[in-house]
Amino acid sequence: MTAYIIRRVAFLVPVCIGILFVTFLLQAFIPTDAIEQMYAGRGTSQQTEEAVRIMREKYGYDKPWYERFVIYVGNVLRGDLGVSVRTRRPVWDDLKDRYVNTMILTGASLVVALIIGVGSGMLSAYYKDTIWDVVGQGIGLFGISMPAFFFGVILIMIFAVRLRLVPVLGQGDWRHLILPALCLGLIEAAGLSRITRSGMLDVLNEDYVRTARSKGLREGIVVSRHALRNVLLPVVTLLGLQVGYLLGGAFIIENIFAWHGIGELAVKAIAWRDFTITQGIILISAATYVLINLFVDILYVFLDPRIKYSK
User: Fold this and answer.
1) In terms of DSSP H, where are the helices of 80-206?
2) Taking phi first (over 0 means left), then psi (-120 to 50 degrees means alpha), and beta for anything else, what does residue 268 get?
3) Which of 105, 117, 161, 199 has the most other CB atoms within 10 Å of its CB?
4) pLDDT bracket for residue 76 (50, 70, 90)
5) Which residues of 275-288 are buried (b: 16+ CB within 10 A; e: fewer)?
């Protein structure tokens, strides 16, 4: 098991290098750079041109791309993601609070997706061909077919504008988190519901489940401890993949609900042509996705010890 974990961690090294290289390309091969954007609109006076030259030398923009890549990797390893063209502040200072907000929204959405998706999938499988099965499959069909931006507007109109149960927009206490988390979570619950139902239908007919029932165990223990545990591997795998979808969906939902996360900042950075912030957001999002999937791979070891992790 230890050797498997070490191999998985070692595998991250080329992956991280690839992520760094791809994000560097965003900056290296665009027609302009952050320094020119910083001084854009100030005319073409000799003082401005000299300031641009000095700043380009300071941040290494006058060097070939391969030298700049080495400098970029060194800066990232030190926690330096560059300076924002718009705010003139370090990119990490602009991102850190918003990153926490996005992780809060993503985590709350995962909880909603896990509870509703796994719960509805279990009910659909256990009460196959009943009204509960119809409801569970309806949740799956709804989540697959409903666009996140449209569903968000519907939630705002019903629960915020009509019923006035939660705030409309903005970010404050926990009530502001309900609608965006529900919007993302219900959509991502669709895949979890379908895969849980499929796995439970196979497992409920296995011999060890019938043996557990013949021993007189309560049905709740049979379903949760014996059946559900053997369905967790594909569910956990899908959860790891859904983090990427949630991060991408959060970019849209954050702008709809005025949630101050990196998704909202990314849209503004693109409008500002602030390539440094955009580059930092892509790097942090990709790194988060890779680390979460590493955690999922390690979690396999504890979920199912029967798996052999050969070299």
Assistant:
1) 91-126, 131-145, 148-155, 175-203
2) alpha
3) 117
4) confident
5) bbbbbbbbbbbbbb
Closest C-alpha to 57, from 40, 43, 71: 71
Residue 36: is its pLDDT beyond 80?
no
Q: Do residues 64 and 29 make contact, with C-beta atoms less than 8 angstroms apart?
A: no
For residue 88, report the phi and psi dihedrals to the nearest 5 degrees: 65, 25
pLDDT of residue 132: 84
pLDDT tens digits for range 205-217: 788 888 888 888 8
Query: Model-level pTM?
Result: 0.81
Q: What's the Cα-to-Cα distance from 192 to each of 133, 237, 252, rounded to whole Å? A: 14, 10, 21
DSSP-derived letter for residue 90 is B
| Helix (H) or strand (E) segment spanning residue 156 | none
Q: What is the DSSP string of 10-74?
A: HHHHHHHHHHHHHHHHHHHTSSS-HHHHHTTTS---HHHHHHHHHHHHHHTTTS-HHHHHHHHHH
The answer to whether residues 95 and 83 touch, using CB atoms and an 8 Å cutoff, is: no
> With contact defined as beta carbons under 8 Å apart, do 52 and 33 qualify?
no
Structural domains present in the chain: 2-81 (no CATH), 96-272 (1.10.3720.10)
Q: How far apart are CA 186 and CA 196, in angstroms?
A: 15
Question: Among residues 91, 78, 73, which one has the least CA distance to residue 34?
Answer: 91
What pLDDT, on the 0 to 100 scale, is given for residue 39?
66
Tokens of 223: 């379903």
CB environment 57-74: b (16+ within 10 A), e (fewer): eebebeeeeeebbebbee
- Give residue 274's region: left, alpha or beta (phi > 0; psi -120 to 50): beta
